[in-house]
């Protein structure tokens, strides 16, 4: 699995992701966002399943759409995710596709511990690209 780290960005927080594949990058980025929302992501159980299918013109737009969808689902369903299985790839029409299965549970403030209110994913400075055999991305989250 890839790794992520946070970095300070004015009144926001940045997320920098390194991964071995685009799918790994997307999974790691989503789990990075979840780790900002709840203080104890390891306590999230796989009680409910959800599916997401997205497409975009390039990997950066796919990453932004993916994280927007993750935040939308956390905000509207109050479910946080602990396990993600996905595919992400460029298809024959040069569109980038993501198909994901997610498992998680409704937020339990006592068990999960609320950490940050992530309001949005910003486009400012966002990128996702492959550098040799490593996928690298950065996004800034409005908290």
Total strands: 7
Structural class: alpha+beta
Helix content: 25-40%
> Strand order of the main beta sheet, please?
1-2-7-6
What is the number of helical segments per DSSP (H or I, 4+ residues)?
A: 3
Main sheet: strands, sense, barrel: 4 strands, antiparallel
Q: How would the global form be characterised? A: globular
**Could you name the ranges where pLDDT drops below 50 across 5 or more consecutive residues?**
none
Secondary-structure element pattern, one letter each:
EEHEHEEHEE
% residues in beta strands: over 45%
Please, could you describe this protein's structure?
The protein has 143 residues and is of the alpha+beta class. 27% of the residues lie in helices and 48% in strands. The protein has three helices and seven strands; from the N terminus they run ββαβαββαββ. It has helices at 22-37, 59-77, 109-112, and strands at 3-9, 12-19, 48-56, 79-90, 96-106, 120-131, 134-142. The strands form two sheets. A four-stranded antiparallel β-sheet has the order 1-2-7-6, with helices on one face. A three-stranded antiparallel β-sheet has the order 3-5-4, covered by helices on one side. Strand 4 and strand 5 form a beta hairpin. It is globular.
């Amino acid at each position: 699995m890839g790794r992520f780290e946070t970095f300070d960005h004015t009144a926001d927080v940045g997320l920098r992701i390194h991964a071995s594949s685009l799918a790994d990058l997307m999974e790691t980025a989503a789990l990075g966002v979840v780790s900002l929302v709840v203080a104890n992501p390891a306590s999230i159980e796989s009680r409910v399943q959800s599916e997401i299918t997205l497409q975009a013109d390039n990997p950066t737009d796919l990453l932004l759409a993916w994280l927007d969808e993750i935040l939308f689902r956390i905000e509207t369903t109050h479910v946080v995710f602990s396990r993600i299985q996905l595919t992400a790839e460029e298809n024959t029409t040069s569109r980038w596709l993501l198909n994901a299965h997610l498992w998680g549970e409704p937020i339990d403030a006592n068990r999960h511990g609320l950490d940050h209110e992530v309001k949005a994913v910003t486009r400012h400075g966002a990128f996702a690209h492959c550098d040799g055999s490593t996928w690298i991305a950065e996004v800034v989250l409005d908290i």
